[in-house]
Amino acid sequence: MFFICGLSLTWDTMAKVTVRLTLLGVLCICVISAPTKKERDVDIYSFHINSTVTSRYAITVITSRVANRLNESKEIHFEVKISKNAFISKFRMTIEGKSYDGIVKEKEEAQHQYSQAVSRGESAGIVSSVGRTLEEFKTSVTVAAFSKVTFELTYEELLKRRLGKYQLLINAQPMQPVSDFKIDVYIQESPGIAFLDVGGGLSTDELTKAITTSRSERKAWVNFYPTLEQQTQCKSCSQDGLNGDLLITYEVERAKYNSGEVRIENGYFVHYFAPMNIQRIPKNVVFIIDRSGSMHGRKIHQTRLAMLKILEDLAGDDYFGLITFDRYIDVWKPELLQATESNLKTAKAFVKEIQDRGATDINAAVLKGVELINSHPREGTASILILLTDGDPTSGVTNIERIQANVKSAIKGKFPLYCLGFGFDVNFNFLEKMALENNGAARRIYEDSDADLQLQGFYVEVATPLLTHVQMNYTGVESLTQASFSQYYNGSEIVVAGQITDNNLETFQAEVIAVSTGHNVTYKDPSAEALEPEKYFTVQRIWAYISVKQLLEKE
Ligand SMILES: *[C@@H]1O[C@H](CO)[C@@H](O)[C@H](O)[C@H]1NC(C)=O
Ligand SMILES: *[C@@H]1O[C@H](CO)[C@@H](O)[C@H](O)[C@H]1NC(C)=O
Ligand SMILES: *[C@@H]1O[C@H](CO)[C@@H](O)[C@H](O)[C@H]1NC(C)=O
Ligand SMILES: *[C@@H]1O[C@H](CO)[C@@H](O)[C@H](O)[C@H]1NC(C)=O
Questions:
Q1: How far does residue 490's CA lie from ligand 3's centre (Å)?
Q2: What pTM was computed for the model?
Q3: Which residue among 276, 461, 517 is best mutated to probe the pocket of ligand 3, counting the most ligand atoms within 8 A of its Cβ?
Q4: Residue 201: predicted pLDDT
């Protein structure tokens, strides 16, 4: 027996108007099989990936058709990598004209069945993390002599705007050259597409010839049809065929849409808010840097490199503070100082001297950071606290719940805390919860040669606050997703979705109130477009996607 458990979002019957959030479950597929080795008598004769992006929402279908050319039954594997942010919405196998859908079970029940399968000594598989941005979905099925099987996996994700662009990552590694291989991407964005770029490992050398792109004002198509020969001769490929990613980057037109863009479909709405051409807000930023013994070696070296670069990027009217900690807390200066040339010079000297040693007192370090920011209030600025750590709290207060409570009551929702977890020894859940409780976010920094670039990359995303205290107000709506945000940064995007009460468009209204460099601003009447319901009810799916993500974050 083979058993797959992966977190998935399911869509009851999409024909119905309601998507129940309780449908969050675990996708479990049980397939009876005998363990055998994989060989080439298994012929993947067709492999298609079809991705449709509508208003930043990507629905991707992978269809793999496989034939057992042997005169005996054979176990056939299906392994694909999908984006970590995606939910699997459907998995179907078709054998000899008969279809089997992945069965969706409640999480506990699935976990129970999974444990049972393992305790009976049967092989078990699970959706597992591979690398930074992808996770693997695996299953297998036994197929009779000279028979065929079709695997069809659908996954969905809302593309997130980072540094002024969206990225759709498609991985292709069919494990052998495939005579009928296709990747089709179709993007439709009603504000218009500002630019489109196709990159990734599959877009190099030989393979560029197999890519075609075409565009109209609001639509774009990317097709990738490599021949059998191209699939084995490119740089990243081998006798096992293609192995790599296609990375599609694009941005939508913004100029006309400072109040944002609202899309309404079938009783649901989604509001994208990413105003441009506003003045940046000077910031007060405090960096809290772990220098405990575990940071020894490359990690502390990369942290110093990244900090030096980040300091250079501060604007002249920013104020900043530096704290390093192990079991002791050191502050560079007892107050926030302006990012003047001479202050930056002494700060850099301080950073260059950071050495690793001792235990980890996260509690005291973060509280010190809060104190630094609180003791220097400045009108019309945006405060940001950034914690970088690679380990569990081991000194001072070590109880995680108590640290979280202390930090929350110190910050009081006044500014965001961002937590960067360095390496794999960190308790990332703890950091993530603490960040989310304080209006921030957590990011994993992978221990690798580019860790300093990852750190800088994160900083750049929050380097330019444009608005604070962003409140998205709606009338005539219900089941809203998160609607207040402590800060809005240049290059990002705020997305709110909800249900329109009684599907009554007459009463529906949207406005945004926020603070920009010391004065209140209101954005009214976003451009709204009511759509004819499409096959996929995209807007409703976006609402469900955000709701479930936010539910998961709370858990
Ligand atoms: C991709 O999927 C969409 C939606 O199901 C469909 O309309 C389109 O024809 C498919 N494209 C290809 C090339 O199969
Ligand atoms: C399968 O084919 C091989 C030769 O290719 C033959 O030796 C074997 O007996 C066949 N097995 C069955 C079950 O027909
Ligand atoms: C925001 O980013 C855009 C490029 O993405 C840039 O043109 C603009 O100047 C930035 N705004 C500020 C205030 O830095
Ligand atoms: C901004 O609005 C808030 C409440 O909405 C109000 O308390 C505050 O005084 C306003 N600030 C300015 C500068 O108008």
A1: 6
A2: 0.86
A3: 276
A4: 85
